[in-house]
């Protein structure tokens, strides 16, 4: 059964929302790639632990991600304190999940660090898109 024209579900599937999702994927892909590279450099070259490495890489990527998501994805022209605080909250939450997943993968399951990093790289962007769309960068 298809939703009636003009319904809320129909509105969410508009072309502009699909383009926003594509922009999010591009911006998130760039931030995630940077996170993955920094994590690997911290482990392989600096000799840091996987949990510390992914946490540090995540923190480095927060301002990069904010700029990409606010300007490119959600096309915010003027930042508000509320957006920055909410984005920071979402990012810190993502950091905690990232560290927990890496700890679980490496220390509890005995998996290689790259497996934990891959799980983080897949899960965090999906959750972030939903939260950023419906809480941080709400169009009023």
Describe the model:
By secondary structure, this protein is an all-alpha fold. It has helices at 8-12, 15-44, 50-73, 81-108, 113-136.
Features:
single chain; 140 residues; mainly alpha
Quick structural summary:
Helices cover 79% and strands 0% of the residues. The chain is mainly alpha-helical and 140 residues long. The model has no long low-confidence stretch (mean pLDDT 87).
Report how far apart the termini are. 30 Å
DSSP helix count? 5
| Number of spatially distinct domains | 1
Over all CA atoms, what is the radius of gyration?
17 Å
Low-confidence spans: pLDDT under 50, at least 5 residues? Answer: none
Helicity level: over 70%
Order of helices and strands: HHHHH
Mean pLDDT, all residues: 87
Outline the biggest β-sheet: none
Beta content comes to under 5%
Helix and strand arrangement:
Layout: H1 8-12, H2 15-44, H3 50-73, H4 81-108, H5 113-136
Helix pairs in contact: 2-3, 2-5, 3-4, 4-5
């Amino acid at each position: 059964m298809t939703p009636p024209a003009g319904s809320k579900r129909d509105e969410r599937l508009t072309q502009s929302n699909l383009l926003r999702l594509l922009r999010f994927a591009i911006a998130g892909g760039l931030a995630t790639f940077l996170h993955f590279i920094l994590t690997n450099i911290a482990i392989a070259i600096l000799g840091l632990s996987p949990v510390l490495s992914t946490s540090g890489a995540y923190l480095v990527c927060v301002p990069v991600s904010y700029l990409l998501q606010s300007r490119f994805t959600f096309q915010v022209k003027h930042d508000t304190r509320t957006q920055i605080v909410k984005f920071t909250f979402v990012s810190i939450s993502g950091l905690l999940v990232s560290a927990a997943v890496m700890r679980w993968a490496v220390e509890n399951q005995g998996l290689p660090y790259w497996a934990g990093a891959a799980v983080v790289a897949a899960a965090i962007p999906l959750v972030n898109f939903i939260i950023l769309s419906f809480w941080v960068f709400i169009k009023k």
